[in-house]
Amino acid sequence: MTFPKIELHVHLEGTVRPATLLEIARRNDYALPAETEEGLAELYDFRDFAHFIDVWILTTNALRTAEDFRQVVVDYAAEAVSHGAVYLEAIFSPAERARRGVAWDEIFEGYCDGAQEARELHGVEVRLTPDIVRGYPLDDAEQTVRHSARRRDRGVVGVGLGGLEADYPPEPYEPVFALARELGLASVPHAGEVAGPSSVRGALEDLRADRIRHGIRAAEDPGLLRELADRRIVLDVCPISNLRTRAVATLHEHPLPQLVAAGARCSISTDDPAMFGTDLSQDYDAAASLGLHPREAYDAGLEGALCDEKTKARLREIAETFSWGAIRPLEGKVP
Fold first, then answer.
1. Distance from C-alpha of 154 to C-alpha of 150, rounded to nearest angstrom
2. Considering the entire predicted model, what is its pTM?
3. Distance (Å, whole) CA 111 – CA 100
4. What is d(CA 137, CA 133) in angstroms, rounded to the nearest whole number?
5. pLDDT band at residue 1 under the 50/70/90 scheme
6. Is 151 helix (H, G, I), strand (E, B) or coil?
7. 89 bridge partner residues
8. Which of 265, 270, 274 has the alpha carbon at shortest distance from 284?
9. Which of 48, 51, 159, 16 is closest to 95 using CA atoms?
10. Which residue, 277, 278, 268, 261, is CA-closest to 235?
11. Closest to 142 measured CA to CA, from 177, 169, 170
């Protein structure tokens, strides 16, 4: 059965399915290496992380206009709702597009328009948490923060830090995250996926993270894991993404059970569903196979959500009125 789901970690650029990519590319006269959905789907069969980056660039370069950004949000909202999503916190990387000539305002307005339309068409609440890109100049990071802050009334609730985690630790970004806090934005950096526990520690101490995107490597440091549990820092866990990127060798080896056993609050998300061949149901199934009940995942998502109290009250009511006991044990196979 379909049950309510909260997703706190999904990159909008990584939600673009082949059919949508073809439509947008044709609209923008952008050449793709394949002209059919089937041909593009073959490109998404990743060989390694470098291949993933190639496809990421291919997809993001097709996005040129506010209409493109709006469509990406609305299309993913429709997909997520079909899997039971009632609340999404969606990520995009504006500096990537701005460095290729797209106006900052066009990027932000397109995504904000999409979030509003997603609510009107599909009834799902969407909040936006743009990423600062590791390795880009700090001026780009500051621009991301300032443009985000101007749109707090349009659903932008925080800023993250994404990109090459192992090459760019969080500490140098402390000034821009301090600016974000000053301007009323939450801190939701990626940490502890490719890099180890020190990455999570830097995000907590220097970026004053309100939530950690991934954070699974915290399992390697019992003291850090206890601190995360004590401080009720929610981790955005993306099981199938971790498998696809080789952050974990097999799903059986995923540290989710260890994190939960230590008291860490773990929400469940897809990360880049189109690129990793997953969807919200598959990731929740993967989490269930590792012992995390859907209600626990929902409650962690609710605790980690950055929305206003009125929206949280509606999400809480959804949880309290749903018959969680009617969910059957996992029957299908997961990766």
1. 9
2. 0.95
3. 17
4. 9
5. confident
6. coil
7. 127
8. 270
9. 159
10. 268
11. 177
- 3-state SS class at 157: coil
Say if residues 14 and 275 touch (Cβ distance below 8 Å): yes
Most confident option among 40-49, 253-262, 270-279: 253-262
Beta-sheet pairing, 265-268 with 234-237: parallel
The three-state secondary structure class of 159 is strand
Q: Where are the beta strands (DSSP E) in the chain?
A: 5-11, 85-91, 125-128, 131-133, 158-162, 186-187, 190-191, 211-214, 234-237, 265-268
Cα separation, 197 vs 217, in Å, equals 6
Average pLDDT of span 318-335: 78
> Measured between alpha carbons, how far is 62 from 259 in angstroms, rounded to an integer?
38
Distance between CA atoms of 265 and 233, rounded to whole angstroms? 7
CA–CA dist 92, 16 (Å, integer) = 12
DSSP 328: P
Band of residue 234 on the pLDDT scale cut at 50, 70, 90: very high
Concatenating the DSSP letter of every residue in 188-206 gives: --EESSSS-HHHHHHHHHT
89 part of the active site? no
**What is the C-alpha end-to-end distance of the chain, expressed in Å?**
20
Burial class, 249, CB count within 10 angstroms (exposed 0-12 / middle 13-18 / buried 19+): exposed
The whole-angstrom separation of Cα 212 and Cα 195 is 13
Q: Please name the residues in contact with 313: beta carbons below 8 A apart, sequence gap of 6 or more.
A: none
Task: Provide the angle, in degrees to the nearest 10, between the axes of the packed helices 138-149 and 174-182.
Answer: 10
Task: Look up tokens 């993001």; give the residue.
Answer: 60
Q: How confident is the model at residue 278 (pLDDT cuts 50, 70, 90)?
A: very high
CB–CB of 104/151 below 8 Å? no
- Catalytic residue among 13, 96, 125, 193, which? 193
Give the pLDDT band (50/70/90) at residue 41.
confident
Phi, psi (5° rounding) for residue 201? -60, -45
